[in-house]
Amino acid sequence: MYAPLPTADRRAQSRPHGLALRGLFGLSEDDRDQVTDLFVLKLAQVAAVWPFTLAIQIIACALLIGLAAFGANDAQVSLIGIAAQSAILLAASLSIFATVRLPALVALAPYKRNRIVTLCAGAMASMMTALLWVITSAPDGPIRFTDAVAVAGTIGITAVSLHSVRAASLGFGGGLVLTLAILAGPGIPVAIALLFFGCLIAATLRLARIDHARELDRATASDAGRVAVKMISEFEQYGAGWFWEADRQGRVTYLSAKVARDLVPYGSAIGQSLTDLFQMDSDTPGTERTLAFHISSRTSFSDYSVCAAASDSDRWWSISGRPVVDDLGRFQGFIGSGSDLTEQRKSEAEITRLALFDGLTGLANRQRMRISLEKTLAQNTGPYRATSLFLMDLDRFKAVNDTLGHQAGDALLKQVAQRLQRGVGGTGLVGRLGGDEFKVVLPGIDNRDTLADLARDLIASLSQPYFISGTAVTIGCSIGIAIAPDDGEDSETLVRNADLALYAAKGDGRGVHRFFADEMLAGARTRKLLEDDLRIAVSEGAFHLCYQPVVSTDSVRIVGYEALIRWNHPTRGLVSPADFIPVAEECGLIEAIGEWVLRTACSEAARWPDTIRVAVNVSPIQFANPVLPALVTSALAQSGIAPGRLELEITEGVFLDETRSSEQMFKALKGVGVRLALDDFGTGYSSLGYLRNAPFDKIKIDQSFVKGAAEPGNRNAAIIKAIVTLADTLGMETTAEGVEVQDEIDLLRDLGCSHIQGYVYGRPVRAEDALRQLGVENGAATASGFKVSRARRHKMLRSARILLDGIHGDVRIRDISTSGAMLDGLNLDGNPDGIEIQIELLENQMTPARVRWARGGKAGIEFHEAFNLDRLNPGQSARIRRVG
Question: Which of 136, 469, 510, 708 has the fewest beta carbons closer than 10 A?
Answer without folding.
Answer: 469
